[in-house]
Write a structure and sequence with these properties.
It contains 8 helices and 5 strands, in the order E-H-E-H-H-E-H-E-H-H-H-E-H. The chain is of the alpha/beta class.
Amino acid sequence: MKKAIIIGCPGSGKSTFARALHEITHLPLVHLDLLFWNADHTNVSREIFCERLEAAMQRDGWIIDGNFSFTMEKRMVACDTVFFLDYPVDVCLDGVKSRRGQARPDLPWIETGNDSDYEEFLTFIQNFGTDRRPQVMDLLEKYSDKTIHHFTSRQQAQEYLGKIKIREE
């Protein structure tokens, strides 16, 4: 594994998994949220985001954490390994709710859940299985030549990390 992407519903733990994978592999870690969002909850233009992503992907190796579906296929083409955290909606909602008020290295602000966008975000999570998951599954099928890890529980992801940690030591 030299170039890996981590995708899944918000709240699935993509960034947490990415940090753990980075600690084991020492591959450079790129959080798409940090390429896209400013600390004041505004975002950069799509053009700037794509330039930043392109620069990150020029490295010899990387772990890229995040969805941003308009760039997912480009990342899937460039990677050799895909991790899809495909968890039940209640797990993802709990993940989002549990991180409120905590500083995170993958986001330039602290989520409070007190803004108007929060309810919209929760709705996005609730609809991920019908709105976004089919697109992900289509891409996984299209790029089935990649090494694909499709985890349906946090336990599966943790077991995988435990196995590769032992191999890397």
